[in-house]
Design a protein that fits this description.
With about 290 residues, the protein is an alpha/beta fold. The protein contains twelve helices and nine strands.
Length: about 290
């Protein structure tokens, strides 16, 4: 995988014990959080276990709420089992589209929102004085899923005055899904790459989800610009600089004129907000409170 939004690394960042599904019967007295990287056959086997172990709590990690994925096997499965008394759902995004429909159908009693944890294993120390005074832009450019990001890239490519002020990194692809890896700038290399620049353009999906890019910006100590997700607190919004793509030149020229002291202050405040509000201890307390553990 190219990021830590699933699998063992996600569990490690949350401070959770992890194991393979073949050993799940050994955890009948645990809260079993089921990773999103499970296949259709595995889910069908899990259903049998859930029906037999009625005293064991099972919580399914649910992502990608886009309505066009309604017929995917995982959402079909979730809707089939959602009313079972020992089944719950965990989402890293504020419920929207398919996940909101799922949450509404169980009266919000079975769906818990906790964002991705912020655990800094990178310790970026690249000083602002050593960084390029440019905006770094990366990720998939799907107009349907990431309209604001795609619109910004389109604007950059059409305006020569901006092209030497923006660095574009193509998406590396998803090797875990069988696609060819386009480059090696992932994981620690990706954070190191981001830290070469003072500004990072970030925007949510069409339904305003807080993607991992928001925390990756904080790891790299970049100043966040672009558009905020719906899940940001007041403290997280304060250092963020919105880019108005209806008046992009005015908006971007204003950003490029910000003094370095203010950029450093914004970077520090953004990092501090993430380290406090996306702390795994705080997030785990929300899990405990949800189940009144």
């Amino acid at each position: 995988m190219i990021c830590n939004d699933a699998g063992p690394n996600y569990a490690i960042n949350m401070g959770w014990q992890y194991d393979t599904l073949e050993n799940i019967k050994a955890y009948s007295e645990y809260l079993n959080i089921i990773d999103r990287k499970v296949g259709e056959e595995e889910l069908n086997r899990l259903e049998e276990i859930i029906l037999k172990q009625k005293e064991t709590k099972f919580m399914f990690l649910v992502v990608d709420p886009f309505k066009e994925r309604k017929k995917q096997f995982n959402f079909v499965f979730f809707n089939r089992i959602k009313h079972l008394s020992n089944v719950y759902f965990l989402t890293p995004y504020i419920p929207t589209e398919l996940v909101k429909s799922l949450s509404d159908s169980v009266k919000n009693e079975k769906v818990l929102f906790i964002p991705y944890p912020f655990v800094d294993r990178y310790n970026t120390n690249n000083l602002f004085s050593n960084r390029q005074e440019k905006i770094v832009l990366s990720g998939s450019m799907s107009k349907h899923l990431y309209p604001y990001r795609a619109k910004f890239r389109e604007y950059v490519l059409k305006n020569k005055w901006l092209q030497d002020k923006v660095e574009i990194l193509d998406h590396p692809g998803y090797p875990d899904l069988g696609f060819e890896k386009n480059h090696q700038v992932v994981g620690e290399n990706y954070i190191e790459y981001l830290s070469k620049f003072s500004l990072m353009f970030i925007s949510p999906t069409r339904c305003k989800l807080e993607l991992l890019k928001y925390s990756e910006c904080a790891y790299a100590r970049c100043v966040p610009i672009g558009r905020m997700p719906s899940s940001f607190s007041k403290k997280m919004k304060e250092p963020f600089i919105e880019v108005n793509l209806n008046f992009p030149r005015f908006s971007l020229n204003r950003i490029f004129s910000i003094p370095i002291d203010e950029l450093i202050d914004r970077s520090n405040k953004y990092y501090s907000a993430f380290s406090q509000e996306r702390n795994p201890d705080l997030l785990n307390k929300k899990v405990d409170n949800f189940f009144e553990l």
